[in-house]
């Protein structure tokens, strides 16, 4: 009788153990499916509190928050340390079309106060990942988030903003249709973005990756179709953006493919861009800008194919001198005065193995431009093994043009107007080397191939 009772107890314990394993398998794997916390695939339901609950639970011991196949609408969610947000194939995390669903408590964007809100936010977090074959779609078109409401700038949330975070991975995910910048990383370290797709052209200021005062950054194998700057190192504080590698990326952009600046208070150091394809850029392919008193040095760009681009290379040392101590909207197409910080420096730049076809109906958007300001020279620039085809068409009158200095103006090449050269305009610079640089025009051009002013 006792043996039978013991046998029954043993079976019951085994059964309970199996049930525990079956019921608790997600916890053992540290996976937290948002559906288990109340989220519903329904575009009429806002799931912010359910997704946040899954994140908060996951953050207790670390793990993976699962966004399953379906359409899940949310407002601002806050990622935390040791949390991986994983979007399975067919998963769509959709930004709410209502501004009231976006938090006002996160650190905003000092360079664009209208972009203070965002969909996915993290602050002071370590070991954060966004992964998977799914999509984060901000649904940020101008109907949902207009650029202006009357005479006031409309609020337009970013898709992602991380502030003061470390060990960040973006792997395989698709980021789509932000209302403003797509991904803004501020004062972060150890960032990997690999095989990410960015497709964002539904509103203005649709930047791809904005890397602001960050260290140790790898952007690799990404495909970016952006309405504004595709990959844009920034520096809105005294902290440098440094030790950054961009490679094997395919980029199209309504503005620039790769741009350092314009915010450049601390500056940029030790940045490498290689083996990329830049196509259909409308306001410059490569732009290296230092206008706010910082440094820009040790930049290497190589093995780039440019098709149907405007302004293939623009290097500008200016004197805007912005401190970024208060939120400030950009001032674009007009002359301004310096805001106080002294001019910075640009030196040690090498750009090599470039093949470019420049296509533009706007003459101001053609040609290489390398320009410092009086008394402040761009130094030590090497252009090597470069082949560029330009449209041509300049006249003898164009050759007489005097290019304004515009020291403090927003640094956009075409703001300087038409250049007196069809190939390269170099001013206030020393130690500029051209090695095996072949430039040609497809139609006759009566301007000089290269114009150099105040060069040593």
UniProtKB/TrEMBL annotation:
One of its GO terms (biological process) is carbohydrate metabolic process. It comes from the Bacteria. InterPro entries: GH28_Enzymes, Glyco_hydro_28, PbH1, Pectin_lyas_fold, Pectin_lyase_fold/virulence. PROSITE patterns: PROKAR_LIPOPROTEIN (PS51257). Keywords: Glycosidase, Hydrolase. GO terms for molecular function: polygalacturonase activity. Belongs to the glycosyl hydrolase 28 family. This is Glycoside hydrolase. It comes from Neotamlana sedimentorum.
């Amino acid at each position: 009788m006792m043996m039978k009772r013991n046998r029954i107890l043993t079976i019951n314990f085994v059964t309970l153990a199996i049930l525990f394993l079956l019921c608790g398998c997600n916890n053992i794997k540290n996976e937290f499916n948002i559906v288990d916390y109340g989220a519903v695939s329904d575009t009429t339901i806002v799931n912010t509190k359910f997704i946040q609950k899954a994140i908060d639970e996951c953050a207790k011991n670390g793990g993976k928050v699962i966004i399953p196949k379906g359409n899940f609408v949310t407002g601002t969610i806050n990622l935390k340390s040791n949390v991986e947000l994983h979007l399975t194939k067919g998963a769509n995390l959709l930004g709410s079309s209502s501004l009231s669903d976006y938090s006002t408590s996160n650190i905003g964007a000092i360079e664009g106060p209208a972009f203070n809100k965002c969909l996915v936010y993290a602050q002071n977090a370590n070991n954060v990942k966004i992964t998977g074959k799914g999509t984060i779609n901000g649904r940020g078109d101008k109907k949902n988030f207009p650029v202006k409401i009357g005479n006031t700038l409309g609020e337009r949330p970013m898709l992602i903003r991380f502030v003061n975070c470390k060990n960040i991975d973006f792997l395989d995910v698709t980021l789509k249709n932000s209302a403003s910048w797509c991904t803004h990383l501020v004062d972060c370290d150890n960032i990997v973005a690999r095989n990410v797709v960015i497709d964002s052209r539904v509103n203005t200021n649709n930047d791809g990756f904005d890397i602001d005062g960050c260290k140790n950054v790898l952007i690799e194998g990404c495909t970016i179709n952006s309405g504004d700057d595709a990959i844009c190192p920034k520096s809105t504080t005294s902290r440098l953006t440094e030790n950054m590698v961009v490679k094997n990326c395919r980029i199209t952009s309504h503005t620039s493919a790769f741009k350092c600046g314009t915010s450049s208070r601390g500056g940029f150091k030790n940045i490498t861009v290689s083996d990329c394809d830049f196509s259909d850029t409308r306001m410059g392919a490569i732009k290296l800008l230092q206008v706010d008193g910082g440094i820009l040095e040790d930049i290497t760009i190589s093995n780039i194919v440019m098709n149907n681009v405007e302004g293939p290379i623009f290097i500008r040392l200016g004197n805007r001198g912005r401190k970024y101590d208060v939120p400030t909207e950009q001032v674009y197409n007009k002359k301004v005065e310096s805001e106080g910080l002294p001019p910075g420096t640009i030196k040690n730049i090498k750009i090599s193995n470039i093949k470019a076809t420049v296509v533009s109906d706007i003459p101001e958007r053609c040609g290489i431009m390398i320009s410092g300001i009086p008394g402040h020279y761009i130094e030590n620039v090497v252009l090597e093994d470069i082949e560029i085809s330009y449209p041509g068409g300049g006249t003898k009158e164009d050759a007489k043009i005097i290019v304004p200095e515009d020291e403090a103006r927003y640094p956009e090449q075409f703001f300087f107007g038409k250049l007196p050269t069809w190939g390269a305009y170099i001013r206030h610079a020393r130690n500029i080397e051209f090695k095996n640089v072949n430039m040609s025009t497809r139609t006759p051009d009566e301007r000089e191939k290269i114009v150099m002013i105040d060069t040593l």
